[in-house]
Amino acid sequence: MPTPPPTGPLVTRDTVAAQLRLLGVGPGEILLVHSSLRSLGWVNGGAVAVVQGLLDALGPTGTLVVPTQSADLSDPALWSRPPVPPQWWDRIRATMPPYDPLITPSRGVGVIPETVRTWPGALRSAHPHTSFAALGPHAREITDGHAPDCRLGEHSPLARLEKLGARVLLLGAGYDACTSFHLAEYRILAPLVQVGRPAPGGGWETVTEVSISSDRFDELGHDFERDRPVVRGKVGAADVRLFPVADAVAYAERWLPLHRPREE
């Protein structure tokens, strides 16, 4: 049976850049992008063309930032997709390669962030679970100093993005992917958890972290979009949302204690 032709639309590097400009993305700005390549349609050049289009829209003075998370460097006792036998756990902990910002692949955030991570000149932050990669003049300022016990809080790239006036671009991604909401969790009452991971020098370590959860972020995003200015549009077939990091954090700081209270 013949393979059916793609349904489109046909998306190119120029398509991405032009449609982002129409939405108001301009030269010199800092953009935190959460993305879904599949949502765009048939992209000529795939993730590479999308990254090129983003960089074209931002220009040489703009900075592109993406999440490059690697949550698989975690305690196998917590794995569920799929789980592994309990008799393997100690061996997995003892032999799991530690995080290396140069070679550890991103996981669960899509092919566009992984393409940015490996782009010439990209810099990546140091947290072994919730790193960010960046390209552009502000890349080092954003990625440096990501504390090993602060996934998405005051000592993470999110706080620097907020301070620098960055905007979030949801490119075919939903509000459940909006990491900026997590910064609000560090500023309100939130429980602490023990997080296991491979230690930098080998072996296993446990650190105390703020518990983070994207539960109900889709509802939070719905209300945020209703109450705050959010640019809406399309790039290819993908639904797009564009808004300041600072607006998202401030709104979540008020919304979360009312709608999703969490106790210590």
Please give a structural write-up.
The chain is 31% helix and 20% strand. The chain is built from 9 helices and 11 strands. The model has no long low-confidence stretch (mean pLDDT 95).
Task: Supply the key terms.
seven-stranded mixed beta sheet, 11 strands, alpha/beta, 264 residues
How would you sum up this structure in a few lines?
With about 260 residues, this protein is α/β, with parallel strands linked by helices.
> Could you estimate the helical fraction of the residues in percent?
25-40%
Radius of gyration: 19 Å
Structural category: alpha/beta
Strand elements, count: 11
Number of H- or I-type helical stretches: 9
